[in-house]
Write a structure and sequence with these properties.
Helices cover 34% and strands 19% of the residues. It has helices at residues 7-15, 40-47, 120-133, 153-158, 176-180, 183-195, 221-241, 288-299, 301-308, 362-378, 404-412, 415-421, 423-441, 446-452; strands at 21-27, 33-39, 51-54, 81-86, 92-93, 100-108, 136-149, 200-205, 211-216, 219-220, 245-247, 261-269, 330-332, 339-342, 350-353. GO terms for molecular function: ATP binding; glutamine synthetase activity.
Length: 456
Amino acid sequence: MAGNFSFDQLKKAVSNGEIDTVLACIVDMQGRLAGKRFLAQYFVDSAHDETHGCNYLLAADIDMEPVPGYKAASWSKGYGDFVMKPDLSTVRRVPWLEKTALVICDVLDHHTHDDLPHSPRAMLKKQVKRLSERGYIGYFASELEFYLFSETYDSARKKHWQGLDTASPYIGDYQIGITTKEEGVMRRLRNEMEAAGIPIENSKGEWGPGQEEINVRYAEALDMADRHVILKNGAKEIAESEGKAISFMAKYNYGLAGNSSHIHNSLWSADGKTPLFYDKKADWMLSTLGQQWAAGQLKYAKEFTWFLAPYINSYKRFQAGTFAPTKIMWSEDNRTAGFRLCGEGTKGIRMECRIGGADLNPYLAFAALIAAGLAGIDEKLELQKPFVGDAYQASRLPEIPKTLRDATETLAKSKMLKQAFGEDVLEHYVHTARWEQFEYDRRITDWELHRGFERY
């Protein structure tokens, strides 16, 4: 867990006037940064120890509507405070904001000062601790895709999100000439994230007009999740400062490719030096440990799909022939698969989960993948043989849940996740999923109006 700025360096930067604002941020259930902007001197004098926030922040939907029915926070309990405890190892400069630093906070119970169990960061920390107790480090990397628009968020809103101008007019997957037109935002994004302590490997055009992919170097799971949420927040802020807009919706347009967040994951020794998935003598050069880990993720994929696809829109992305998976199986370097083996024959061998969309919360997604992987190890599961061919056309393969409703009910029945996360924590997120479905079910969509206003 590391930013690029120690607390002592922050204090020095504040004293000499280089930093005058500190963002103290938690991560909400939707994977967004939420928190306070501190006068920097006040933060280094006292608020670095702790501050407070309303506990409805982890019991509200994406519209910031307090959702009834949660055990953890409600009107009947008065929506009290929780503690926001800055993790000072995450302090970093924010190059795209003037004289600003940022720190990620853990969310603690107001009375006991223990991690709040349903906080996304606490959920991932719990699973990382389970790895550590066995002598493992989980290395993760999430690839983020998004659409870049030659629109502002205001202009897109005025157009009712329809007929938007993308940064490029046609698909430019890997095409340098097209992506040069997008460099005003993308160059800043690469360089300023690097300066913020988030090492960027590369960016590239993706399989949609104006669609981009950016790759962050792998890291320990908690550090990678921190990088992921800061990158998403910063990408929007940088784009807006350039008069552009970015969308991480899983499927913003029926006729265009969706936005994914593929998650690469592997286990290494506690000192981070020895890859535990690499075995030259094993099938696919994937160690027994690696095979059990992958088998666990395959077995429980339906149960944790909601953590990779948390919204109604998320399921619109799972369409055949779009590079988004529809089936739960694994394959060797096959982009029609739900899980793909990467780095075969090298120390970097790892599983890539291709199910998640760019709308996922990385803390929840990583935690679920770890829990499933550990279940596979504990159950000594045997990894099935890899699928070969076009998975879209293979009718007998198990399918990814097709709707939020399906994924929610599968989530609710998961004994594995209940044991890994705790019954109350799992119930909290099942309630979140059911609220999202309830909100959608009672709304009138543009599609319904178009089809039915005159013709019904």
